[in-house]
Structure prediction request, 340 residues.
Amino acid sequence: MSAPWNRRHILSLDDFTPPEYDIVLQTANSFREVLTRRTKRVPTLQGQVVTNLFFEPSTRTRSSFELAAKRLSADILNFSPGQSSLSKGETILDTAKTYLAMGTDMMVIRHREAGVPHAIAHEMDRLNVKVGILNAGDGQHEHPSQALLDLFTIGTLLDDQNPRISLLKGKKIVIVGDILHSRVARSNIWSLTAGGADLHLAGPPTLLPKWFGEWFKDCPSLPSNTPSVPPPPQLHWSIESALAGADFVMTLRLQKERMTDHLLPSLREYHQQFGLTRRRIQLCKPAVKVLHPGPVNRGVEISSDLMDDPNFSLVSQQVTSGVAVRMALLYLMGSHLMNC
Ligand code: NCD
Prediction:
């Protein structure tokens, strides 16, 4: 392995370095091999406790972390807010401390408010306890494990034996849709630009405001952590100009639950203007592949037939990759905790 892993928590990708991406990709690739064996389980995290603290609904991320922890032989606790003491007035920090007292080693946290995993990590560090916090999606902020599994899906497609971040260099990658409300887009912007991808963002101005490009340029952590500052993503307010010659297209779900203002005339109109369809996909390279983090609003951000077409769609590979990538993250954090 090229460099040591030095992170107790994985909260954001904004300061991830290329060697760190490569460690995740290489580790995930070795776990991918484990997942093809007859006995798909290794004893790596035996005796460690992983707690899934999902304060927001989730199908794939939560199940994926649960399966990843089980494949590593960890004990897993699943917290559901509906049946918890939160309804009796307990605070989130007290809930986390309860799981700490039960011997939790790693907490996987999802919350509708940005910053909750950071606050819990801060509290664990203040208490000086050896617990790793993994952000599984915080509000509109970040979703690191999703971007890492997207990176792994693309990386293994480009080089099945040796996925690495440098394979992205010069690849045209387009993220289409509700960029403003998407934590998946934010995390992907960090990883894809760190790899030198030619990154394009497309959406209606209400979901891709002009200032979004400035946010990226102004981020203080970027210059110190990337050897040469990558060019910022290009913004498009029409899908056609963005798709021309694309190698990969990531479509995002319209986050209806986060749209408190009336940002769109109608879902039908959105599909007409920004939906990924068979006609539009022809603007891309012939070998183009489509990703979607799920859940999908079929017929809104992507036409149903395109989503199901294995010649284009990587959606099920993303879900499969997710288990190997999350095994890698839990393994790297767990090993770091055991050694520090
Ligand atoms: C995403 C999420 O929850 O942020 N889904 C996921 O984790 N697979 C994207 C979304 O909800 O649209």
